């Protein structure tokens, strides 16, 4: 008779997680354990374990099961490997697949891909996929926008490993390359938000004339922003945080509703004289924003 098990773990201590990995491993008859097979039986997802231990392979290694991680590519034809690449891209909702993603989802070693296809790039081309963005140099604005998106999704500052998963489209290494540490990257984001702060410092009589002129120019720039449709990143963040990273109309949040995206839009439409100021902005999901537009 099968033992009765509640569908959640009693806690997330390391030994509890490792025991769960070993329990599921005993249920899987095949020599190698893939993410899809594990998720069918486990009370915690393989991706969650990957975040906890650094990767799915490291989780298996910690549980003493590293020998069940990868099978050689000799067991598969070229066509089967290409099909698996396409399947993983569909599962992860990304136009590319990294070597790590391929191994962790399929349990197949990628070391012989060079002999099979010439390169990982060539394998992706055969599968009709884009190249991995590992070598891409992201701009400052792309990094900041991506961090805002993930911060909004979680409703809090993201952890380093969380930048490897959707909705993030810029990996954590890009932030380390630019800012040298994850902590410095987060501080850079805060500095960016504060740089868009509308409140100007008080100007005392002791301030030099050239400084007063600079502050005056900055004030003029900010005043002109209220007459622009574009909402700066810092202002968007303040509105999202004020609204607790939830849609003010339906109350849903990205943290609780998978696939939900929040936008910051004008309460009084910009086209009808609405200003781009915090008091005239609110956080809404796509569905509510469309509904609002249809009613105007």
Automatic annotation (TrEMBL):
<keyword id="KW-0378">Hydrolase</keyword>
<keyword id="KW-0255">Endonuclease</keyword>
<dbReference type="Pfam" id="PF18780">
    <property type="entry name" value="HNH_repeat"/>
</dbReference>
<dbReference type="InterPro" id="IPR002711">
    <property type="entry name" value="HNH"/>
</dbReference>
<keyword id="KW-0540">Nuclease</keyword>
<dbReference type="InterPro" id="IPR003615">
    <property type="entry name" value="HNH_nuc"/>
</dbReference>
<feature type="domain" description="HNH nuclease">
    <location>
        <begin position="234"/>
        <end position="290"/>
    </location>
</feature>
<protein>
    <submittedName>
        <fullName>HNH endonuclease</fullName>
    </submittedName>
</protein>
<dbReference type="InterPro" id="IPR041025">
    <property type="entry name" value="HNH_repeat"/>
</dbReference>
<dbReference type="Pfam" id="PF01844">
    <property type="entry name" value="HNH"/>
</dbReference>
<dbReference type="InterPro" id="IPR052892">
    <property type="entry name" value="NA-targeting_endonuclease"/>
</dbReference>
<dbReference type="GO" id="GO:0004519">
    <property type="term" value="F:endonuclease activity"/>
</dbReference>
